[in-house]
Specification:
The protein is α+β, with helices and mostly antiparallel strands and about 290 residues long. Keywords: Dioxygenase, Iron, Metal-binding, Oxidoreductase.
């Protein structure tokens, strides 16, 4: 029996009244970590992998995501999220089903092998997307825990999932690069407020439900501090599903884009949402639990 079968909600959130943060009851690393880059993953909740992709691979994937963003027919697809203000492409979801090149990347042992080590099992793709943050007008992502959303709105039982963000552009401290709170993955922060129907239509562009209070963000920042993922194109950030993270707007001339892959354990498959009226579309939360081969 999997955790999803039991329907015990060990991480209640989207509550009517404010609730205090609680300590995580699940491991961070479920398997045997052998990659030196992952040595501090259990303690920090994230790891930076330098030069995951070669210069040639970065150029090829950059051309591929530019092609996708410029495709006028794809722009009409519901999997493509458009920025509210600039009317430019913000994200393309389920990109591993749209792009053969990204599908091949998912199966690359340099990529999926990292997730298998951390999660200690076979894994499947819970979500994939390309994120675009153009220069001058790229909009950031407010502080949040991915697991809080995936638990509340997708029915993910435990935080036995991780994300890999592969940089296709240089990440500077000033162009909206991702910020994380090292160690915050050990604390689950419940959020207040009922999840509206079809919440994903707004939250994918600007999330307002499922974000922590200013008080809780301040407490976490005081306790854990803030680190930033900076580095050359081709590097990657692997991070735990429950770590508190976010990014600022990009008002510089330097764009930022990345391929974002979420791996979930096949022993942690989705059930019904814990705190939402209905499931989100499968291009956001896959219910194809076949392991990556």
């Amino acid at each position: 029996m999997t955790l999803a079968d039991s329907r015990i909600d060990r991480y209640p959130t989207r509550t009517s009244a404010a609730a205090p943060p609680g300590e995580r009851t699940d491991p961070t690393v479920w398997g045997a970590v052998t990659a030196p880059a992952l040595a501090s993953f259990d303690a920090d909740g994230y790891a930076i992998i330098d030069e995951l992709l070669s210069t040639e691979e970065v150029a090829a994937f950059s051309a591929e995501i530019d092609r996708l963003a410029a495709d006028p027919e794809l722009r009409l697809d519901e999997r493509v999220i458009i920025e509210k203000k600039s009317n430019r492409v913000r994200s393309i979801f389920e990109v591993h089903r749209i792009s053969a090149a990204v599908a091949e990347l998912v199966r690359d042992e340099r990529v999926v092998g990292l997730a298998r080590q951390v999660l200690g099992s076979e894994v499947y793709i819970h979500q994939s997307r390309v994120n675009y943050m153009p220069g001058f007008e790229g909009t950031g992502f407010y502080w949040h825990s991915d697991f809080e959303t995936w638990h509340a709105e997708d029915g993910m039982p435990s935080p036995r999932a991780c994300s890999l963000s592969i940089a296709l552009t240089d990440n500077y401290p000033f162009n909206g690069s991702l910020m994380v709170m090292p160690g915050s993955h050990r604390t689950f922060v419940p959020c207040q407020g009922e999840t509206p129907a079809d919440h994903y239509r707004e939250s994918l562009r600007e999330q307002q439900i499922g974000v922590p209070s200013h008080e809780h963000i301040t407490e976490l920042a005081d306790r854990y501090g803030i680190a930033q993922f900076t580095g050359a194109r081709g590097s990657a950030l692997l991070f735990d599903s429950n770590i508190m993270h976010g990014s600022g707007n990009n008002i510089t001339p330097f764009p930022r884009s990345n391929i974002f892959l979420v791996f979930n354990s096949v022993e942690n498959t989705l059930s019904e949402p814990y705190s939402a009226p209905a499931r989100r579309p499968t291009y956001i939360a896959s219910r194809d639990f076949d392991p990556v081969r």
